[in-house]
Write a structure and sequence with these properties.
This protein has 460 residues and is α+β, with helices and mostly antiparallel strands. 61% of the residues lie in helices and 8% in strands. A five-stranded mixed β-sheet has the order 1-2-3-5-4. The chain starts with a helix and ends with a helix.
Amino acid sequence: MTHADVTGGEPGGRRGTPAPAALAAALGLLPLLLVHPQHPVLAVLEALWAALLVAVRRDRPVAAVLCAAPLVMGGNVWTLPVIVLIVLSATRRIAPTRRAWRAVGAACGVLGVLTVAIGLFRWQQLPMDLADNAISAALLLLLPALSGTLLGRRRPLTGLLRERNAYLEQTRTLTAEAARLEERTRIAGEMHDLLGHRLSLISVHAGALELAAARQAPPLAGQAELLRTTAGTAMEELREILGVLRRAELADGMDPTDGSGNGGASERGTREDIAALVTQSRQAGGGPVELDWSVPGTAEVGARARQAIHRVVREGLTNVLKHASGAPARVEVRRTDAGIEVDVTNGPPREAGRSQGGTHSGLAGLHERISLLGGTFGAGPLPDGGFRVAARLPTDAIGSVSGPLPETSAGTLPPPRGAHAPLSTEVLTWPRVLGAGCASVLVVLPTAGFLVVVLLAALR
């Protein structure tokens, strides 16, 4: 139970606006201009007193209920609807329920004492006054109090269900994270067992081939060395991928294929890195490759944006070697007002039918990577028979992507596939809200009818 529930104050120290009090004062004063009461001064004081109780009903609900009792036997009938609202609102904020009923009982006792005290001066009408005030107390105090306590019982239930909802949501996200980590570990194990051994064999045989080529075929020594270094680089990148897959979170600025984000990975996407890719493509037996780099050296390009540039160029040059070996190619990386544009184009292959085929998975991965950065990606054949790979990185992605990747903590994990997020507190408590609301309305229906009759009688 919170302090706000006991004292009746709003959670967090929030106070009500003066609008309800102003409306209560207007409801009690404006009709007096049309219907003149027998005691105008007393009627005005009653209206102001009712407005004051409306203002304090949140902070002092018990006092508001007790002080509303004298208004029941007052001469200003226009304050009667305000009494109902005061009692209903105040008892809704008093906890526990028995404390609210003690306050209502004390208010009824105050009303009885005042009725008897006034009846001593006109004892002939005392029985009739007692009967009238008893009915008024039942309709203006007891029934609104019953309605308020019904609504007040919903408050702790709502808090309990809100806590339950938060617990279930946290459990779901933790379960999803555990499942993801388990899957990442399994994938890392499979990659280590299947790819690690094969790449190690390739690296060993490439080293032996390099030594043999140096003795028997010196012109092929460069190609053998390139094969060995490429296999070694692939092995290092595989180890970095395995390290990332076994971690629960990605470090700041780390790419899933870059390991720790330090060393060579931090230099990817720079002019030197792209120039090295172009040189490697030439050494691998490709055709002439030109590089056009027009990004200023002072331009701030984030780590993930540089990785995207590296991937686009590498995939484009790899496709040239696979599908158009020997064809001339051109790599363009330029800075524009909209961001950075990366184009890799090649001419038609020199020999038809030499393409090694492919699954287009590399292009699909590039499209996903560029889309995550808010850019656009396209790849397709050219009219002259060549092929073009193009990516556009927006300006806002260049500087911002150097920060940390989206967190994968328990509070921000996306829901697993096929799972549904828990229902919100409002939806969970909606049947209860309907029940409490309908019961409260039924309880105060006699009170509403009584007020309508009294106010219509006052207008005649």
